[in-house]
Amino acid sequence: MFKNPQAPDPADEIVCYCHRVSRGAIVEAIRAGARTLQDVQAATGAGHGNRCQELNPKGTCCSADIRRILAKEVPAADA
């Protein structure tokens, strides 16, 4: 499959704007063993900010986005 060299890499997408944590860093933490929101927070620092409404374009905390990534990346038996 041809990959557009100008297309942004989804791994570079910022999930936690308070600490500038990317989707790729979160997935990497999950692949290294993180299985809960707290595990991801400890491994990446994501979700520990207090400026979500100001910095995140969604105006919300990133914890819901992290949970969605966990649900996609962690097999149901592991969660």
Tally of helical segments? 4
Global shape? globular
- What is the SS-derived class? mainly alpha
Supply Rg. Answer: 13 Å
Q: Order of SSEs, N→C?
A: EEHHHH
Give the averaged pLDDT, no decimals: 89
- Biggest pleated sheet: 2 strands, antiparallel
How many individual β-strands? 2
End-to-end gap: 32 Å
**Percent helix:** 40-55%
User: Beta fraction of the residues?
Assistant: 5-15%
Layout of secondary structure:
Layout: E1 14-16, E2 21-22, H1 23-31, H2 37-44, H3 52-55, H4 63-73
Antiparallel strand pairs: 1-2
Describe this structure in words.
This protein is mostly helical and 79 residues long. It has helices spanning 23-31, 37-44, 52-55, 63-73; strands spanning 14-16, 21-22. It has a two-stranded antiparallel sheet. It is globular and about 35 Å long.
Summarize the structure.
The protein has 79 residues and is mainly alpha-helical. 41% of the residues lie in helices and 6% in strands. The protein contains 4 helices and 2 strands; from the N terminus they run E-E-H-H-H-H.
Question: What key attributes describe this structure?
Answer:
single chain, 79 residues, mainly alpha, 41% helix, globular
